[in-house]
Amino acid sequence: MRSPSYSALPARGLRAVVVLALAAGLATTTQAAARAHSAPSAPAHHTAAATAPAPAPAPAAKPFMGWSSWSMQSSKYPGLNPDGDYSYLTEANVLKQTNALAAKLKKYGYTYVNIDAGWWRDNAWKPGFDRYARQQADPVRFPHGMKAVADAVHAKGLKAGIYLPVGLEKEAYNGGTSPIWQAEGCTTADIVYADLRTTNGWDSAYKLDLSRPCAQKYIDSQARLLADWGYDFLKLDGVGPGSGKGGDQYDNVADVAAWHRALAATGRPVHLEVSWSLDIGHAADWKKYTDGWRIDTDVECYCNTLVSWENSVDDRFEDAPAWTRHAGPGGWSDLDSLDVGNGRMDGLTDAERQTYATLWAVAKSPLYTGDDLTRLDSYGLSLLTNREVIAVDQGGGPPAHPVTALDPQQVWAAENPDGTYTVALFNLADAPAAVTADFAALGFTGRAAVRDLWNHQDLGTHRDKITEALPAHGSRLFTLTPRGTTAVTSTAHEAEASSNTLSGSASVADCAACSGGKKVGNLYLGGRLTVNDVVVDRPGTYQVKVAYVSGDARSVQVSANGGGAVRHRFPSTGDWGTPGTVTVPVVLKAGGNTLTFDSGFDYAPDIDRVDVPRPS
After folding, report:
1. 108 by DSSP, 3-state: which?
2. For residue 151, what is the enclosing H or E element?
3. CA 39: distance to chain centroid?
4. How many Cβ atoms from other residues are within 10 Å of residue 171's Cβ?
5. What is the pLDDT of residues 424-464, one digit of tens each?
6. DSSP per residue, 259-311
7. CA 482: distance to chain centroid?
């Protein structure tokens, strides 16, 4: 489901995820005032904490873990919001969840308590501001104020998170007369554009004109207030490019950079998370200025449960792959809340709950749940506290990516620094099906020891593949340890080779990052590439690796020797210049073969190269 309007009453109110925590073991993380990490591979330098002799860990060294209030705020589940839409968010409820988090999940690494949208609004969604145009806690929702809540969270050994929308909220403008804190001569009229152009995903705020010094002073004043209250985490929401809007007025990169500077200037380590459904074309900006970024719309269904399978839990399988290469120490791709602990209230089958948690873990998304922690069921608790699965999310390896096409049965994998492989099998079909992970798709043949992480079982040694029967929307998660394997060798076939056949609209195009500097594109509405002279020594099913480029997820029909075509969906690579790879099974005969990639009546990805394994 796409974002509701923030300017409306809370029913369809502000979408939020205040992403909640650093990783397990990062409860004492201290980052330098500069916080200047320009990329995940180059985290910032840090000064030592005043009481610790050793340097502190880098910011966002691991995906954060914790709890967020938004899922229960947004749900129509009976009893959650008795005083009207989004009324769940109160001081009493936040502290109740804080106590439950400390008792049940803290020892597993869940450390952040995130207060989401509405803390400065009453139940009619009317906002409150101080005399300096800064958000002020609603006295009914939070009678003791936001500092008292942060203090209570800290007393449990946890971290406190809070939420703000980007821009100057319209109601805070006050005719342009409100002064800016510690900025002599500056008023709200001096921080926005004269035409009062709007910004953010809901047009609920005026766009800050950051060419005017007073605008930075306003953000500085907001950051100082949050730091003085003791918050450790800020989710900045409605940020663009992205969040469902396009155009210059919705470009908030300058705002994010200003927040980065302002938080650093407070001297308090504050994790900055930006949201929602952000433009991947600005991934470098999110990596430079923030600790994490939402990649998709809200996972919540805004229905009588917290989430539902079809209401964007399943969308993440298509949307996450393009972001994989951007995530790592210093900044992580955020898939939104992990609501798998409450059974019927979650709105999912047990198989779907496990699959949901599996994808979040292998993608190395932050693990923050929006469940009611006071009523976790036994199965949900087992999912949230499985140490082997948490270790996948928190470990030193890269995020997994699809090694097969995005078909109903798919395999995601990552090679870990110790030589093992994390391998997830997914059956996204609405009926049971077998899913096979061919070791050749991982780059080796031979034997591998298999560990089932959800069930804490060693499954013995498997040769060349592992196959599991999975229920509808089911999954399995394994660690594979190769034993005496052989690396796959392949014969490469460049798509642009003069020996190939191009039909319809297909044409050769330049591609600096592609093999040979070229690719075959314009595969649409009947455009077709046929790779000729594909020679193999023996007949069989080959795991053919296809290097391709696609700015969005696209499908293509693959066939061999003029036979029946199989339609496969390739994940987005993020743009039209970055190649990715997937494997597809193709039946080949001994001797010469042809491989055809046909767009049919749709738009297909560009093809860079085809690698056909040589039998070992």
Report:
1. helix
2. helix 145-155
3. 17
4. 16
5. 999 999 999 999 999 999 999 999 999 999 999 999 999 99
6. HHHHHHHHTS--EEEE-SSB-GGGHHHHHHH-SEEE-SS-S--SSSSS--III
7. 29
